[in-house]
Amino acid sequence: MIDALIIGGGIAGLSLGARLAPHMSVLLLEEEPALGYHASGRSAAMFEETYGLPSTIALNRASKADHDTLDGGVLSPRGLMLLDSGDPERYEADLVTMAMTPLTLAEAQAMVPVLNTDTVRRAAHHGEAWDIDTDRLLQHFARTIRQNGGTVLPGAKAISIHRLAAHWLINTPKGNFEGRLLCNAAGAWVDEIARTAGIAPLGFTPLRRSMARIAAPGGHDIATWPMMFGPGETWYAKPDAGALIVSPAEEAPSEPTDAWPDDMTLAEGLARYEHNVTEAVTRPIATWAGLRTFSPDRNLVIGFDTADPTFFWHAGQGGYGFQTAPAASRFAADVILGRASELDAETQAQLAPDRFS
Questions:
Q1: Which of 77, 74, 47 is nearest to 59 (CA)?
Q2: Are 14 and 149 in contact (CB under 8 A)?
Q3: Sheet of 46-47, strand order
Q4: Residues 193-220: pLDDT tens digits?
Q5: Is 283 exposed, middle or buried (0-12, 13-18, 19+ CB in 10 A)?
Q6: What is the tens place of the pLDDT at every residue in 318-350?
Q7: What's the pTM value of the predicted model, to 2 decimals?
């Protein structure tokens, strides 16, 4: 009998498993043959402490030390640049919310040589933002589970889930597994997993986000360029492995699925980016989409289900999964193990599933 069965092999499930494995037996089941295949594998992950709602910011701040130290540290400098080319009200709001420092256009162009100073009216910069080595973090948590005697099992879709007298029974293509606690960390599929288990869904919404990889503009070395974005996050562009990832940053409701990009939406986002630079966008190197799944109030959901204390929610990471993972998983383990949490009472209440009761 396994102590904790975890469904979901993305950053949420792996980090939770790593926190629990030193204290109890853990089996993590992932539907896909590879870990982090869906949202986690398609994230343009950044760490920026002030990004998100208050509960998310609290988790960000509580995660920073782990990001600096886990596996030797998973952060590298990036920075953010806000560009105003015609949306002054939202620019002013972002300037305050994200604690940006105004730049002259000459200073901004020194950082990003392809900046179009004929269209960009104002620019600001925030240096306290970092790239997250997502694969390194995923592998660190998976390795931690295994090193503590736990099992990570890809290709094990939960076909059926049955609540027995004192435990759960999950049927998968790789066998049947029984466990005392069922942890739902299934990303876009969390409500589907709940229904399969006979638990009332909480109303999570997967939102599609499209992305394109384009060649480095003008052949520049873009390794040190900041991530650029428009007011209200109407688009963003982020250096990645010698190329540039550009996204319209849309939030289009979607069914839980292997997401694909919307060509028209992607074209509009590329045009918004192109309006701010001097280099035309040619054919993308690749395009893809991911799903960012939010609860009804857009806070994460971490805790026991109100109707069944053997069913645990670890869900609703939205676009904050990687940056919150260290603290979110630590809080989840604290709840499961009955330990005191580092998080204040208000933040804990904002994360608890009973807020939807």
A1: 47
A2: no
A3: 46-47, 130-132, 75-77
A4: 999 999 999 999 999 999 999 999 988 9
A5: exposed
A6: 989 999 999 999 999 999 999 999 999 999 999
A7: 0.94
